[in-house]
Specification:
Layout lengths: L5 E4 L5 E5 L2 H23 L2 E5 L3 H10 L2 H4 L7 E5 L1 E3 L9 H8 L21 H15 L2 E2 L2 E2 L3 E5 L23 E6 L4 E6 L1 H4 L5 E5 L5 H9 L19 E5 L13
Parallel strand pairs: 2-12, 3-4, 3-8, 8-11, 11-12
Antiparallel strand pairs: 1-2, 5-10, 6-7, 9-10
Helix pairs in contact: 1-2
The chain binds 6-phosphogluconic acid (6PG).
The site of 6-phosphogluconic acid has 13 residues, from helix 2.
Length: about 260
């Protein structure tokens, strides 16, 4: 049964799927994961799904780790990637893949070879990004030479960043690499991130955003002028637009409100 209480179109900027709160958001995200994995396997024999870091995907992972969800997923044909990663070992709480493994993937029967983590023992982030791009190219089915994920989950930071595409950073201007290292001066670090050409080739992209802390930025991203350099989430324009799976608290500043 769907948790979605309203659907609001923002044209090319996407479609809002409204749920009540962060708990129903995680459950709806888990349902989207299951549906995407099954239809991709049915249609193409393989499912490729990219997760992101952040709090909401974590809640989704906790649900998917439970047998009633997990048993609905064709794990042997499902491949997991991450749309971004921190330059941190898997054991670190900063590692997106490490967190997902501990909460989720270590508790489901996914073959280890289907879980694609960034190599943070590579010489440097540039080398790691390059080898991750090769992994993506070797597994994800392509269309006109570009790999098309079945589903990419993204979050939106309160500064408007998505994946590790932060405001004012170089990876936002990337047009050829699919995965890039990205210096983030305000965090004094380098992150690894999918770039727009890879994100926008996906069959489906779903933002997960919950809580009042996202409200102002979400309104800027969907209602305001386009300024990708300041609002990187606006760079996400897959065919048909992204889905925005959001809770009531996150939509309070939007110009369009659900009819009640
Ligand atoms: C990361 C991310 C990042 C995240 C947003 C939203 O590794 O930090 O992938 O883009 O998705 O910051 O995070 P929340 O969902 O926790 O607000």
């Amino acid at each position: 049964m769907s948790n979605v209480v309203a659907s609001i179109s923002y044209g090319e900027r996407g479609r809002i799927l409204l749920v009540e709160d962060s708990a129903t958001l995680a459950s709806e995200a888990a349902e989207l994961f299951i549906a995407a994995a099954n239809s991709a396997v049915e249609e193409r024999g393989i499912a490729t799904i990219a997760l992101s870091g952040g709090s909401t995907p974590k809640q989704m992972g906790l649900l998917l780790a439970q047998p009633e969800f997990s048993r609905q997923i064709p794990w042997h044909l499902t491949h997991i990637f991450w749309s971004d990663e921190r330059w941190a070992p898997l054991e670190s709480p900063d590692s997106n893949a490490g967190e997902a493994r501990r909460n989720f993937l270590d508790h489901v029967p996914v073959p280890a070879s289907n879980v694609h983590v960034y190599d943070i023992e590579a010489e440097d982030p540039a080398a790691s990004a390059k080898s991750y791009e090769s992994d993506v190219r070797s597994i994800v089915l392509t269309d006109n030479g570009v790999p098309r994920f079945d589903l990419i989950f993204l979050g939106m930071g309160e500064d408007g960043h998505t994946a590790s595409l932060f405001p004012g950073t170089a990876a936002l201007r990337e047009t050829s690499r699919l995965v890039a290292p990205n210096d983030v001066p305000k965090l004094k670090t380098t992150r690894l991130t999918f770039t727009a050409p890879l994100i926008n080739a996906a069959r489906r992209v779903v933002f997960l955003a919950a809580g009042a802390g996202k409200a102002t930025r979400l309104a800027e991203v969907l209602d305001g002028p386009i300024d990708v350099n300041e609002l990187p989430s606006q760079i996400v324009r897959p065919q048909g637009g992204p889905l925005w799976l959001v809770d009531r608290a996150a939509i309070s500043a939007l110009s369009k409100q659900p009819e009640s």
